[in-house]
């Protein structure tokens, strides 16, 4: 059974002055769109202004770490936090394991390279049904949209540890 959400937020955060970058993969676009929309909705609920949310794309989840680095260093160095969003769904080969592990480590390491919060917005699911449920699309599975969690985590990390 999956845990719903990141738990109780420890303070009331005002995101009205934050600039947030979202860079998302284009693979699994139906799921990605729901995650991005959930993330943006949550950011706005913390007061982040729509004009301060910058959304860009890259081909797939494997490209997210490099695209995130270039997004921040060369395109939008003014952002306070970046949320790379991708979806990996296991197939019948080892491809899933290699990419999941590589992207996870690269995103984690980016935080230290860039000295900036980089939120882990990567779904790694065994089935498409799991991904749909975690994107809030399959309500029969009674899951929530994980994009909302990433938006809340972005505001907290950008403000609490600035």
TrEMBL record:
<keyword id="KW-0808">Transferase</keyword>
<dbReference type="GO" id="GO:0009231">
    <property type="term" value="P:riboflavin biosynthetic process"/>
</dbReference>
<dbReference type="InterPro" id="IPR002180">
    <property type="entry name" value="LS/RS"/>
</dbReference>
<comment type="pathway">
    <text>Cofactor biosynthesis; riboflavin biosynthesis; riboflavin from 2-hydroxy-3-oxobutyl phosphate and 5-amino-6-(D-ribitylamino)uracil: step 1/2.</text>
</comment>
<dbReference type="InterPro" id="IPR036467">
    <property type="entry name" value="LS/RS_sf"/>
</dbReference>
<comment type="function">
    <text>Catalyzes the formation of 6,7-dimethyl-8-ribityllumazine by condensation of 5-amino-6-(D-ribitylamino)uracil with 3,4-dihydroxy-2-butanone 4-phosphate. This is the penultimate step in the biosynthesis of riboflavin.</text>
</comment>
<dbReference type="GO" id="GO:0009349">
    <property type="term" value="C:riboflavin synthase complex"/>
</dbReference>
<dbReference type="InterPro" id="IPR034964">
    <property type="entry name" value="LS"/>
</dbReference>
<keyword id="KW-0686">Riboflavin biosynthesis</keyword>
<protein>
    <recommendedName>
        <fullName>6,7-dimethyl-8-ribityllumazine synthase</fullName>
        <ecNumber>2.5.1.78</ecNumber>
    </recommendedName>
</protein>
<dbReference type="GO" id="GO:0000906">
    <property type="term" value="F:6,7-dimethyl-8-ribityllumazine synthase activity"/>
</dbReference>
<comment type="subunit">
    <text>Homopentamer.</text>
</comment>
<comment type="similarity">
    <text>Belongs to the DMRL synthase family.</text>
</comment>
<dbReference type="Pfam" id="PF00885">
    <property type="entry name" value="DMRL_synthase"/>
</dbReference>
<dbReference type="GO" id="GO:0005758">
    <property type="term" value="C:mitochondrial intermembrane space"/>
</dbReference>
